[in-house]
Amino acid sequence: MVIAAANGVVIATEKKLPSILVDETSVQKIQSLTPNIGVVYSGMGPDFRVLVRKSQKQAQQYYRLYKEQIPVTQLVRETAAVMQEFTQSDGVRPFGVSLLVAGFDADGPQLYQVDPSGSYFSSKLLRWERMSLMQSHFLRRGTLMIWSLMMQCIQRF
Asked: What SUPFAM superfamilies does its record include (predicted)?
């Protein structure tokens, strides 16, 4: 789940390990693309890592050219274009991952969902429909607690 507030963005995710044999520190569900943009995924981890590398490279190229951080909207547009290209190219399969991209730039907090097809849209509150039972129960019961915790986090940073 990702929530955009007036002065920041909060990303929350549940890390489900496929097996007890998997090292918990080796699974990263949230990655930083730039100092002001983060991303969380649902789907195939290896596809996510490929998209993170491509997005970080795009952000670095933008920074080298303009000497400023890439706007969130532009990075999302370029990442979605890569994903869309893979849906139409011969010999490659589409990316099996959905992304939630959150960031803060000159336009304020930005929040986007990018689908495997390469389509993307913006919103103030996004969550995937297939939440675990525990997550949906926690959100229903603990809405006030979540908002107070988020406000504390925002105030500290």
From this structure: N-terminal nucleophile aminohydrolases (Ntn hydrolases)
Rounded CA separation 48/152 (Å): 30
CA angle 126, 132, 133 (to 5 degrees): 120
β-strand partners of 2: 11, 126
Distance CA 136, CA 128 (A): 11
Whole-prediction pTM: 0.75
What kind and span of H or E run contains 55? Answer: helix 45-66
**How many whole angstroms separate alpha carbon 72 and alpha carbon 22?**
33
Token match 């789907």: residue?
Answer: 43
Q: Residue 115 and residue 110: Cα distance in Å, rounded?
A: 17
Q: CA 140, CA 133: separation in Å to the nearest integer?
A: 11
How many Cβ atoms are within 10 Å of 33's Cβ, its own excluded?
A: 24
Q: What is the pLDDT of residues 100-139, one digit of tens each?
A: 999 988 888 888 999 999 999 987 554 444 444 555 555 5
Give the pair of three-digit tokens for residue 14.
Answer: 């549940």
